[in-house]
Amino acid sequence: MPLNIDWQQILLHALNFVILVGGLYFLLFGPVKKFMAKREEYCRGMEEKAAQTLEEAEKLKADYAAQLQTVDEEIDRKRAEAQHALDVSVQQQLTDAKAQAAEIVMDAHKAADRTREKILADTQKELTEIAVQAAKKLVYENQTDIFDSFLNKVEGGEPNE
Q: How many CA atoms lie within 13 A of 9 on its CB side?
């Protein structure tokens, strides 16, 4: 035997190794293969479920986006209606305010006309009184002058003119 190698021992070890590998193959390969197949199917199922859930989520997202769009349109419509109602209300209040202002101006004109007429009447009354007083003064003054001149003539004095 060269190099002190026993071929019989090597062949027995090789046969022993082949029996070990064959036994392990039959004992472990089948269950491991079944386990791997189950695991692969489980992962595939999870992937399909995830894809289905994602698809449902996308549908829900699209539905919610459509609902949000509808709600936004409804809000815009309500806002436009409210703005229109506000504009109508403001226009009505403006019209009422203008009418009220016109009434106030008319009342002021009427009051001014009444005041003017009263002032004119009072002025005419005062002018009449002044004219009467002036006429009385002239008449009494002339009478006094005539009486004084009569007395002067009777007494023999000079006349006052």
A: 4
Per the domain annotation, does 9 fall within a domain? yes
- Under the banding of pLDDT at 50, 70 and 90, the label for residue 137 is confident
Which class for 149: exposed (0-12), middle (13-18), buried (19 or more C-beta within 10 A)? middle
pTM summary value: 0.41
126 domain-assigned? no
Residues with Cβ within 8 Å of residue 149, at least 6 apart in sequence? 159, 160, 161
Lookup: tokens for 115: 């005041």
pLDDT at 17: 95
Please report whether residue 131 resides in a domain. Answer: no
Residues with Cβ within 8 Å of 153's Cβ and at least 6 positions away in sequence, in order, are 159
